[in-house]
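Quiz preparation item.
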């Protein structure tokens, strides 16, 4: 039924999406059903223009989420297609010469109002962060069932687990994949005694062990080990983020790339670790189970709650902070 797009009265998916039946052999606004509502591009093999028909032809996912909008708690049940599956259809490009190169890449989600939000590829990947974001096209909440309202749709990105709704991009029009512009190379491997924080910060700062130990100390249990160090969010705010004064939630379009001495890289979005949004407790560890990291260097990025620990970068040499914009900067 979905793929053949035959108008069989009010039983079609199109009617469910558009709401109601009209005369003339099909629902009103059927051109909106088959016209593109979302563009997927950037570093992908198959750029695409996605319509509501395309979304409806994919496996339907129902997702109930709770978040604060302003100071008001809300619960919504959305119906849509997996955002990750749409990226998979497009084919995310990666550099085969770099180990886990996908983990240094990010997705920029853009709405018609100009809002831009970063999700890293590692955050979304089922193998790593496994954030089950949707491109939602219907809602069944508070007794309402039907297409998204004018303030949200026709499609909306979801960010399940976030505290507030800043990364629920309404009126979503674009998903662009980019390679990070990180410039710090590896140094051939080996134990790194320090790392530098640079990029969109007030001034570059280099941290050695003593400088890290002077910051507030936290611990995280990862598997069978307990890591101790400094919250990545705290570290970035100690250094000072250079943020857009005009953006309502400037951290949501920012991300960091951590680089190890061997050149291994992984990206983390600031929205993912901001306590107001993703609230993921990533840390820069300098101890494991009460002892130094030894072969992992003076400091290691630890991202908790992952399926696999591919975004945990040992022997840190650099943390570069970026503001994403359409075009890949």
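Solution:
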């Amino acid at each position: 039924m979905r793929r053949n797009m035959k108008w069989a009265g009010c039983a079609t998916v199109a009617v469910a999406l558009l709401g109601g039946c009209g005369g003339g052999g099909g629902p009103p606004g059927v051109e909106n059903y088959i016209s593109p509502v979302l563009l997927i591009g950037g570093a992908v093999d198959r750029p695409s223009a996605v319509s509501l028909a395309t979304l409806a032809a994919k496996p339907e996912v129902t997702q109930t989420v709770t978040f604060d909008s302003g100071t008001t708690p809300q619960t919504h049940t959305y119906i849509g297609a997996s955002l990750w599956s749409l990226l998979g259809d497009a084919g995310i490009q990666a550099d085969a010469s770099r180990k886990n190169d996908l983990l240094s890449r990010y997705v920029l989600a853009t709405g018609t109002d100009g809002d831009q939000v970063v999700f890293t590829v590692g955050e979304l990947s089922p193998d790593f962060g496994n954030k089950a974001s949707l491109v939602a096209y219907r809602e069944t909440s508070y007794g309402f069932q039907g297409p998204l309202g004018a303030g949200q749709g026709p499609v909306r990105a979801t960010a399940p687990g976030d505290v507030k709704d800043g990364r629920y991009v309404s009126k979503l029009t674009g998903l662009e994949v980019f390679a990070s512009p990180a410039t710090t190379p590896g140094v051939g491997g080996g134990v790194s005694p320090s790392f530098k924080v640079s990029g969109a910060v007030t001034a570059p700062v280099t941290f050695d062990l003593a400088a890290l130990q002077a910051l507030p100390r936290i611990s995280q249990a990862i598997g069978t080990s307990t890591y101790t160090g400094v919250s990545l969010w705290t570290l970035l705010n100690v250094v000072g983020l250079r943020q857009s004064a005009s953006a309502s939630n400037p951290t949501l379009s920012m991300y960091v790339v951590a680089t190890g001495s061997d050149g291994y890289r992984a990206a983390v979005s600031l929205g993912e670790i901001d306590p107001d949004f993703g609230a993921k407790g990533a840390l820069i560890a300098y101890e494991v189970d009460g002892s130094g990291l030894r072969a992992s260097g003076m400091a290691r990025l630890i991202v908790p709650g992952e399926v696999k620990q591919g975004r945990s970068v040992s022997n840190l040499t650099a943390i570069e902070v970026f503001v994403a914009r359409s075009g890949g900067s």
